[in-house]
Amino acid sequence: MRRCLAAVLGTFVLAVASVTASAEESPGRTLSEAAGVPWPTVIAHRGASHDAPEETAPAYLAARDLGADYLEADLQRTKDGVLVAVHDDTLERTTDVAKVFPGREKAPVSQFTLAELKRLDAGSWFNAAYPERARSKYVGVRILTLDELIDIAEGGGETPGLYLETKAPGQFPGIEEDLRKVLENRGWLNADGEPQGKIVLQTFEKSSLELLQKSMPKVPKILLLWVGDGYLAAKSPTTFAQSGEKIKADFYARQEVKSREELFAWLDWAKANGALGVGPSVTLTARGDQSYMDLVQPWMNQAAHERGLFVHAYTVDDAVDFDQLSKAGVDGFFTNRTDQLLRFLGRPPSQGVGEVLKSVGY
Ligand code: G3P
Ligand code: CA
After folding, report:
1. pLDDT tens sequence across 221-230
2. Does the pLDDT of residue 170 top 50, yes or no?
3. 224, 231, 317, 338: which to mutate for ligand 1, most atoms within 8 A of CB?
4. From residue 332, how far is each of 25, 131, 187, 245, 316 by CA, in Å?
5. Which residues surround ligand 2, an ion (CB under 5 A)?
6. How far is the CA of 290 from the centre of ligand 1 (A)?
7. pLDDT in tens, 308-334
8. CB 295 within 8 A of CB 258
9. Who has the most CB within 10 Å: 262, 279, 310, 351?
C-alpha cells in the first residue's frame, strides 16, 4: 500500500515538476500572460462535459466551481436572432427533437426559434449514452442562451472567463457583431473594448477570424487548426471513405499536413490577421471520437511560439496526454475533464466532480 502511495505521489511530483520546468522555459507562458490568459490554460470544453450534458447548466456550473479558467461554448443563432450554445449543426444527437418536432431532426439550429429550442430536453441523451454517469436531474435540462451562460460565469465564487467559438459562421452572417453586442451589453467589453483575457474568441474559419478582429480588435483570438478540405492541405488526398479505415480516429491519426511550409503559412496568416494563439487538434493515446490529427508536434508548437502565438490543444482528458503535450510545448488544453486537468497541473479542486454537481443542484 505504501509503495502504491509512493508511486502515486512520485507520478504527481513528476507531473508538477515537468509543468514547472516548462513554465520557466516556455515562450508560450510569456505570450499567454501578455494577453491576460492564465497559463497553463484550463478550458472546460462544452463545460464539464465528461460528467454532465454538454453545453448545459450542470456542465458549466460544475466546470465553474471546479475552477476552470474558461467555459468553452459553440455559438449558433436561433431563427429569431438569439445566440445559443449548441455544438452540432442539428439537434439530433443531444436533444429529443425527433420526439418534440417530428420530421425536423435534420433541420439546422437556425430554423428553430428560441421558444422552440427551450421545449427540448438536452439532458436525457446523456443519461442514455453514459448510464454510469447518469443523474436523474439531467432529465429536462434546457439549451442555454449566451446570456444564460454569462449568468453562470458571473454567478459563483469562482469567476471563469468565456472561450467562445463562432460555430459554422457561414450559416450565420453577422454572428460576430451579434456576439460583440451581447458582450458589450453585459459589460464584458470595457470602454476601449479590452476585456483583459476574460474572453477568448475562437474559430476554424479564416473569414470569421477577420470579422471578429474587425468587431473586437482587442479581444484575444485563436484560429483553430484542422487538416482537410478548405483548411490546412493534407499530404495525401485520400478521403476517409477511400481509406478503408473503419474508425475515423485511426484515419485522422494518419492524416498529415502537406508540408512544413503549409503549416507555417497558416500560422503566419493567423498572426497577421489578429490571432494571439492557435488551437491545434490532438491524436489521443486512447483514441475515441474526439481524437483527430496530430498538429501538436514539438516543431509545430515551436513554430507557433516563434510567430508569437500560444497553443491551446483540443480536446484532451487523460494524464498521459497532458504530460506528453505539456512537454511538447502546448500552453493549455480544451478538456472535457476539468477536474483531471486541474489535478495534473497541481491545482486540485477542493471537491470531486460528483460533490460539485450535487452542490449546484444536480
Ligand atoms: O473549439 C475547440 C474545440 O472545441 C474544437 O472542436 O468540434 O468540439 O468545437 P469542437
Ligand atoms: Ca468548440
Report:
1. 999 999 999 9
2. yes
3. 224
4. 15, 30, 26, 31, 10
5. 74, 165
6. 9
7. 999 999 999 999 999 999 999 999 999
8. no
9. 310
Higher pLDDT, 278 or 13: 278
Residues 33, 18: Cα–Cα separation, whole Å: 19
CA distances from 186 to 64, 193, 213, 361 (A): 18, 13, 20, 25
User: Tell me: the pLDDT tens digits for 178-232?
Assistant: 999 999 999 999 766 566 789 999 999 999 999 999 999 999 999 999 999 999 9
Peptide bond into 40 cis (omega under 30): yes
Amino acid at 306: E
Q: With a threshold of 0.90, does the pTM exceed it?
A: yes
C-alpha cell belonging to residue 184: 458589450
Q: Is the pLDDT of residue 18 over 50?
A: no
Would you say domain 27-359 falls under CATH 3.20.20.190? yes
Query: What ligand is nearest to the CA atom of residue 74?
Result: 2
Query: In a 3-state reduction of DSSP, which class is residue 40?
Result: coil
